[in-house]
User: Fold this.
Amino acid sequence: YRRLRTKETRLSRFNQTEIKAMLGSYTKVLFVRDPFHRLIVTFLQGMGINPSFSSFVQEVLDSGMHNGGVAWEPLVSLCRPCLVQYDYVVMFGFLRQELGHLLRRAGLPAGSLLPELTDSQVQWTYRWLSEQMFSELSAQQKKQLSHFYRWDLAAFPFSSSFLSE
Assistant:
């Protein structure tokens, strides 16, 4: 799209006609991850200053969506799936399978470009981590997190998420 060479990168900087033309000229891929897994990764990467996962989650809940970081903000508010019609939604945990399909559709060799870990290893690891971290949370925190991420849980098929249980 012609105006992409400008410094403006946010869609909100463009008018509706330009946004429609711009989005129509690209293949749009959205990568999504279980919001609870996103919290775990953020915590493990040290982005939370608290020593326990429970206190980190409380920090997230206290700061909310408006004062929090992109690392834990609900996906629906970041990527606007109701406004942008994505061509593909790729779920973390199915990357090898879905990326292979996308690469083949783009005419690229899928085999050599895919990550080494298998999807089942990734899913098993996150299931184990989720169980450990979820057990640290109070019933109130679990309820608040489910409410905080309710639109993500409704918009994407995170059926095995601890937050949807």
